[in-house]
Amino acid sequence: MFTPRAETDPLEGRFDQLDRSGRVIARLARRPVWPVLAMVLLTAGLAWWFVISMAGSIVELQGSARPLGPGMSLISRFLPVEPGSFAATIADLCLSADSGLVLSGASFPGLAVALFVMWLAMSAAMMLPTAAPMIRTYAEIADTAVARGEPVIHPAVLTAGYMNVWALAAVGFTLVQLAIGHVTGMSATAPVKGVIAGLILLGAGLYQFTALKQACLTKCRNPFTTLFARWKTTARGVFRLGIEQGVWCLGCCWALMLIMLAVGSMNVVWMAALTLFTFLEKTGAGRVTTKAGGAIISVWGVALIWSALA
Description:
Radius of gyration: 22 Å
Strand content: under 5%
Largest sheet: none
Distance between the termini: 62 Å
Order of helices and strands: HHHHHHHHHHHH
Helix content: over 70%
Number of helices: 12
Mean pLDDT: 76
Shape: globular
């Protein structure tokens, strides 16, 4: 919990006993907004580094002749490779067997765990930056409550609830990827091709025009209403608030995340592009971005299906 301010303390807010740097740190610590955003950025940064390191390890293991999807031919040359690291171990598990065969093989558990870790890291890297406005809104409400002497729960609990939803989603994405690999016989990290890739893109594009997408996007764009109306002062309550916001976010972005199957699940170029698009969608107004993105993705999907069937 944040400690309420002592209104009777005449030195409150001055911190005259500290040096200049100490006063800056003390004032930042008193207000949760910026430290929480720094925590979010740091966590997302670590997730991005893990995913980029994993992609570099996959390129090293399978050779530059098999880039991880569109746009990765050039950038793959500059990806970091850390032999023996956790990222390299996960990458090795992803490539240890043909995912089209592992459903009946002994290597299935290891591959499933590796894919889950990959999807969880991708979710943290892509979704935490887009959740920053929601976390900031909570921190600002909490800061106001602290100023009134009310107890509040640290925003990290809210963030944990939010990421819990994406951890469950990572399980679903893993199962979908394994199922597609079983049907197509392709390796776990290779981009899905042909009709299946086209159907994934077409479905993701059409979802952009649905009422459910718009309802979830509206909730993501206006977290204040939910957070203020359902304000909780217990850790369990705030964790559930995070879960609720995570569900709205998942409803908004699950189809966009599936696009990674069509472009390569470790394609950091498309990860960055989708992260930027999602951030613009959540922080913007109107439906221009959503509809434009949906139209482009749908046309792309139709083109792939047409090409595969021609």
